[in-house]
Amino acid sequence: MQLIRVFSVLSLAAGGLACGPLHAHDAEHEVVARDTLKIAPGPSDTQIQFAPVPSIVDPAPIDPTLGYFVGDLGGGVHWVTEGAYSNMFLVSTHGVIVVDAPPTIGRKLLYAIGNTTHLPVTHLVYSHFHADHIGGASLFNASHPTIIAHAETLSLLSSLSPRDPLRPLPHVTFQGNYTLRVGNQTLELSYHGPNHAPGNLFMYAPAQRVALLIDVVFPGWAPFSELGISTFIPGWTAAHDVLLTFDFDVFVAGHVSRLGTKDDVLLQKKYIEDMHDSCAAAINGGFDVSAAIGPTIAANPGNTWAEFKAYLRVAAQTCADNTTSRWLGVLGAVDVFAFESAYRMIESLRVESDVLGPFGVS
């Protein structure tokens, strides 16, 4: 049975799924024009005028000559950013602990450390296995640091064939919690299940009240595409609450050129809750399904994948539009990846949280 028939039967039985129905022509035009997962050509992002970013984004003052910024967080803790990525390092009495090595910062990280201390890098901690955060790890090969990561990170890096020489395998791994002590510095590492990626760590410097969590909260900004390209959205969402249990003043987020605070975590948490509810509402009757997918069915007879993609695209666009209308000017760039993140949330609700709308138990 074609999807249009399924939706029609459900609409009649429930008194109609529509809530603010879309006309078929208008819905398809909107999807093609704004959906970056296109099945038909649309305008490129270079032709789109996005909303101005609000002052909350508050970027660090990066010296154009150096190309990076180093911030002193006190007690030997420093963070580094080149504008898009960030990481941190801790200077102890016995050596330097580096957390992550983003390749976009690259050798600038060596300069930042070298201009701060003459002590060698003795330890390198991987937040998780993604190359955009640890792809510069081989730059520290000369100092032979002890590399520490969660066991999942070792497993995933080991599974690569061929192995990536730019991401040396960790020497020390753990499952739950690990306390790293080097000289007078302490860094607490903990794992609370998969979120952005399996093995993604929470890190905390208790003496300086500094936390680090990568690819979950984007201070001042809406999350990157597809909710930070996260693999397990329920765990990613829950990570906000886990982070709030730490007694920190600032945290390093891994992206954007500013630090975060607990207020930033709470603000993004509200944004994600709003997107969650908006996407659930879209699935549960937020648009006229028959009208939305009718043109695709007519143009692609017998192509179930095309029919279902049309449904997912309109559901995601409905959620994205509703969420964006409430958050423009509150967080930076909420309109840039609104569709991609809503699409990811729609899929998460369907397969990870059992919010199935017209595809529930019949």
TrEMBL record:
Record keyword Coiled coil present: no
Keyword Ligase annotated: no
Superkingdom of the organism of origin: Eukaryota
Family annotation (PROSITE patterns): PROKAR_LIPOPROTEIN
Keywords for the protein's UniProt record, in alphabetical order: Hydrolase, Signal
Domain Metallo-beta-lactamase: 85-255
Signal sequence residues: 1-18
InterPro entries: Metallo-B-lactamas, NDM-1-like, RibonucZ/Hydroxyglut_hydro
GO MF terms, alphabetically ordered: hydrolase activity
Name this polypeptide is given: Metallo-hydrolase/oxidoreductase
